From TrEMBL:
Domain of life: Bacteria
Residues annotated as transmembrane: 22-44, 50-70
Name of this protein: DUF4133 domain-containing protein
Record key words, sorted: Membrane, Transmembrane, Transmembrane helix
Keyword set includes Transmembrane: yes
Length: 110
């Protein structure tokens, strides 16, 4: 059995992947690949050994990608990346009224 928790105040880690986002994505990818493998077997008549061999190879490749990303970015790496994408690259101020209000406001007084 896999040891999931390593103690209090430590993130869950499964097979070297830290953070629930990475674990959920890997589980979703495994289920999606399994459905794709079954679909290929039934629709195109691919032999089971070849189909499941491809499944294992693709799943190991996805695991290595997620393990590398987890190690590189940490347990909250995906949330940080999503947060960076939502920040504006440039803030445009087209009205100088903002600066006039700041200039006339006394500093330090409430």
């Amino acid at each position: 059995m896999f040891k999931v928790n390593k103690g209090i105040d430590r993130p869950p880690e499964v097979l070297g992947i830290r953070g629930m986002d990475f674990i959920y994505y890997l589980a979703g990818a495994a289920v999606g690949l399994l459905l794709l493998t079954c679909l290929l077997m039934f629709l195109f008549g691919i032999p089971a050994k070849i189909a499941f061999g491809g499944y294992i190879v693709l799943l190991l490749a996805l695991y290595s990608v997620f393990a590398r990303l987890s190690q590189q970015h940490g347990e909250r790496g995906l949330n940080k990346q999503r947060g960076r994408e939502r920040h504006p690259k440039v803030v445009l101020v087209r009205d100088s009224g903002v600066y006039r209000q700041l200039r006339h406001k006394p500093v330090g007084k409430a």
